[in-house]
Amino acid sequence: MKDFDKSPLWDSILKSDVFQKIDINSFKEEGANTRITQYSHKTHSLLFFKNLLFQMANKLGKDNLSLLHSIPNRHVGGGLAIDYDDISIDLDYLCALEEVIFLKDRLNSVKSILEIGAGYGRTCHSLLSLFPNIVEYHILDLPSMLALSQSYLKTVANDDNFSKIQFISVADIPDINYDLIINIDSMQEMSQKTVESYLKYITNYGNAFYSKNTIGKFDPCICGWQKSESSELAMNSGILKELVNIFCSVELKKAQERFLLKFLPSKNWSVKKHEATLPWSHYYQALFIKNA
């Protein structure tokens, strides 16, 4: 029977405090169960995040992932990444790739783009790298953010693509037409008045509008976060302030429908396509087009 003795690992586990003090009413929450069936989210958060990257890459597929080879210098700035089939994968550029896939048919014929709130510029970097037909890419942002995106894009983009970019302060928004206007992950951070002003601008100067934003607000406690001044400010920003259980499919569907109604620039626009995004349940994406 000696061959069936418990291993040194299990001998150590069974002698640990968590096994000496098992409470049948709560052992699945913390402690013993993290050594029986599940990893602890408190001690294995990096494992969870890297697995999320792997699963998202798996979902997008090898053919789509191969497009990343055409986006140079993605490593600039560092950040968490995994190696997937000899491709360095990080969450920011996976999200950019998802946007490319969603918008591909439209992007093949677009010449001019305005991006409202471009962050450090990963979407701009991706689109200009993959679609040479784009001849103008304007980034509209706060001055401090423009300094970041200009520095990043100057570093990662080739000279030809960088020459296509104009960096415009929000105080100098131009009255010119664009084939496509983009906003990703920032309208939920603006005041309602500002969002409404942008939607009016899009109505007047855009032929198509891509929105990838949150579908509402959620209680920070649902994710184990503490409420703070920052979270209170976030709860009162944007045009979708309804509280949503972001892990309930019924509530998500209703919130997605509200998203389409709220982000439609005006009555003479229509929804071309829409779908959920990866990896977050509380984000949604849609392409709106101006009716002829």
Uncertain stretches: none
The total of beta strands comes to 9
Give, in spatial order, the strands making up the sheet with the most strands. 5-4-3-6-7-9-8
| Helix amount | 25-40%
Classify the secondary structure makeup into a structural class: alpha/beta
How can the largest sheet be summarized? 7 strands, mixed
Shape: globular
Run of helices and strands: HHHHHEEHEHEHHEEHEHHEE
Query: Averaged pLDDT, please?
Result: 93
**What gap, in angstroms, lies between the N and C termini?**
81 Å
Cα Rg: 23 Å
Indicate the proportion of strand residues: 15-25%
User: Number of DSSP helices?
Assistant: 12
Question: Can you give a write-up of this model?
Answer:
There is one protein chain. Among the domains are: 37 residues, no CATH class; 79 residues, no CATH class. 40% of the residues lie in helices and 17% in strands. The protein contains 12 helices and 9 strands. Strand 1 and strand 2 form a beta hairpin. It is globular, with a radius of gyration of 23 Å. The N and C termini lie far apart (81 Å).
List the helices and strands and how they pair.
Blueprint (H helix, E strand, L loop, with lengths): L7 H8 L1 H4 L12 H4 L8 H16 L1 H4 L16 E3 L2 E3 L1 H17 L4 E5 L5 H9 L5 E6 L1 H14 L2 H4 L2 E5 L10 E5 L7 H14 L2 E7 L14 H7 L13 H15 L5 E8 L6 E8 L2
Parallel strand pairs: 3-4, 3-6, 4-5, 6-7
Antiparallel strand pairs: 1-2, 7-9, 8-9
Helix pairs in contact: 6-7
Task: Give a short synopsis of this structure.
The chain is an alpha/beta fold.
Which features characterize this protein?
alpha/beta, two-stranded antiparallel sheet, 12 helices
